[in-house]
Amino acid sequence: MGGGRIVAGLLAPHPPHLVYAENPPQNEPKAECGWESLRWGYERLRKQLENIDYDVIVILSPHWQTYVGTHFLGLENFKSLSVDPIFPNLFRYHYDLNIDVELAKMIHDEAESDGLSVRMMENPDFRVDYGTITSCHLTNPKWNKPIVSISSNRSVHYYSVEVMQEMMVKLGEATRKAIWKSGKKAVVISSNSLSHRHFVNESEVPEDMSKEHITNHSQYLWDMKIIDMMKKGKTKELIEMMPEFTEQTVAETDGGALTWMLSSLDYPTYPATIHEYGTIIGTGNAIATWDTNDEKRNIQGVSSK
Amino acid sequence: MTEGEVVLGLFVPAHPHPLLCPEKNPGWARLREAYEQARMIIEESEAELILVYSTLWTSIIGHQFQGLKEPEWVHVDHDFHYLGSMPYKFQIDTDFADELVISAKSRGLESRVVSYYGFPIDTGSVVALSLLNPDNRLPSGICSSNMYSNRAETIVLGKSANDAIKKSGKKVAVVVVSSLSNRMFTDKIEPHQEKIHSQKDDEWNRKILEFLGEGRLEDVSQLSREIHQQIRVQKVVAFKPMWWLAGVMGQHNNFAGKVHAYESVHGAGCAVVSLIPKLDDVGDKEYDEDDVETYRGDRNVLDTIITENENEDPHIQNEDLSEENLSEGEKFSSSRAPKPVGAYPHARRVGDLLYLSGVGPRQPKSNAIPGGPVKDSTGKKLNYNMKAQTIACIENVKTILEDSGSSMEDIVDITSFLIDMDRDFEDYNTIYAEYFNEIQPTRTTLEISALPTAIAVEMKVIAKLNK
Could you tell me which chain A residue has the CA closest to the CA of B86? Predict the structure, then answer.
């Protein structure tokens, strides 16, 4: 077919705290308030997405961790209860989501032909990870678009951040090629925070905002450096700096999502829209959009012209 | 009630292959048989409860204990989902789970029970309990493996589990679920291609199993850092299951060990080992590494207000002392004084003298340091007020003395510790004189490199008891 393209790339962090604080009907625990500035940032992101026509969300979450290659959800529907193993007191979410299996299989095949180890996940009892659910809920709470869910290959644990980078760059290219071939308009989501050195204890009232702050100053400085690069369109430089950033801030970018997403966009040189930055249990979280209408280069699978 | 005890220790693999498809590979079948042998050993041990520590249940907010009475789900592994689903329904001893939390907290560990329908029990716990306790004949407990917990914290967690076992009055089989070498093949392999990932991994695995076969658990525990470095994927900070197992089983080498199977699963080293406590000899140890009884790590990032109840250490008596109930050698803590930062009382009586533990300026309940801390959480030095710290320190001494039936006027000797003599001596000496100019106890002032918390001064006091 051909002619499909990525219409937007998102950095959409997935702390369950944000869903908890919104009190959606799907989530069992209820909150008084919390992390408003980040939730308002997500509101701005959703507002922006209303003006972008898309068919499918393609998301990579670090909380579906696979050690034997990269996996893709491969059944049309998953419906169950997701309980966060770290914050079960905040996130017990009843999900019912649809998968674009056709596109998932196309990315799978493209990645395989590029030499990556891949596998389709076709067990109906499989429970979808809370990172995918949280980022998708906050991006599209109506759940009216199918998704492609990609696992996080933990090559970083076996080898190094550099090896993870190489594999995610390849996976991003495969994603872009598959989307172009599919003829679909896709939003690609990197589901991760930035600096990830977080608190190891929880305040009595989880949404007590008087307790919320970045874990330490150096994490903040790193986050600002990364965001500054995003704002200046220096994503290639960001990728080059990623190993050091990941190691210095115990960043969730070790899961490969941000590298994959920027690679799928072929490293935007135009500025990202930063909707918000804030902390959650001490981690740094930025919500950002790359609207590919801003892409001036001619990139198959990305450019609008 | 008779004190509970650990009657058996088991080391078992976490991968789902022996549960879901043992027929596909002879090694997986041997692991399944070994699991069955372990199940029978549990029966023979007359254990009344199974306590599982799974390295695949990683926690971040402290240590978590499964607390739902009958957790039920159909579990699917994130990686090996194509092997099939694992339906389970376990029986959890919820009272024991509560006791695990109490015991962990009393040793300074952040911990909580998780009791939620649908809470994701990890593959390792599901595999182990499904094979070791298939008919739910025994109730069980499951505890998490904290991602950041290192040696001291993990050993203390093991010791706290032992505390809970003793209190329970039950015979307990403790089970650690973990691989030896955990480097799997990162690509698909067919069952007939199964082997240990590398010769080095295999050699290390065999060395570990040689030790365990001889019952040398503590020796393996003390090799854990090296094991982590040599044959473990660096996913978490350390290889900790042996620390936990040694902590809960008494930190010695006096076991009858048996290796029931050693095989590979997708390249990782997997073994079933049993360790039965022996009473007939003392065992030996290659070397000793210190450990602690109570965890006082630096993980409290949030400001915490310590309530009076939390301030109580169950190992220490905590009562206002009058002379008649302060017996020879008796120890006590004052609820009006700052909480000790280790397993020691505020004071202890010998004859007519009262010996105080080192007292610093921290404030009771809030733990705040008057005059400010000497450094921040990153170790960066901060400016502080030595006069304010000295006043607070002496006021804490006064409180402890008064609560113990003594007084400032009864002090006979003081040893003061300062972290910066050049900077602080003058201020310290000025305040000291205001309090002790009339009393005139003997005094020694020393400079030391550091004190246990971010304080600049600490005092060690000996006083007479009031007649």
Answer: A125
Which segments of B178-213 are extended strands (E)?
none
CA distance A94 to A26: 5
Which CATH number describes the domain made up of A5-294? 3.40.830.10
Q: What ipTM score was computed for the predicted complex, to two decimals? A: 0.95
Cβ neighbours of B122 in A, within 8 Å:
85
Q: How confident is the model at residue B329 (pLDDT cuts 50, 70, 90)?
A: low
**DSSP, residue by residue, A144-181:** -S-EEEEEEE-HHHHS-HHHHHHHHHHHHHHHHHHHHH
3-state secondary structure at position B164: helix
pLDDT digits (tens, 9 = 90+) for B244-275: 999 999 988 999 999 999 999 999 999 999 99
Put simply, whether A64 touches B (Cβ < 8 Å) is yes
- Residue B446 to residue B425: CA distance in whole angstroms: 10
pTM: 0.78
Give me the residue spans of the domains in chain B.
Answer: 5-277, 323-464
**What token pair was written down for B359?**
């007292």
List chain A residues with CB under 8 Å of B76: 123, 125-127
pLDDT tens, B361-412? Answer: 988 777 788 888 898 777 778 888 899 899 999 999 998 988 888 899 999 9
What ranges make up the beta strands (E) of B278-375? Answer: 331-332, 347-350, 353-356
Q: Once rounded to an integer, what is the mean pLDDT over residues B319-331? A: 49
Bridge partners (DSSP) of residue B8 are: B173
Q: Is the domain covering B5-277 a CATH 3.20.20.140 domain?
A: no
Would you kindly state where each structural domain of chain A is located, as residue ranges?
A: 5-294
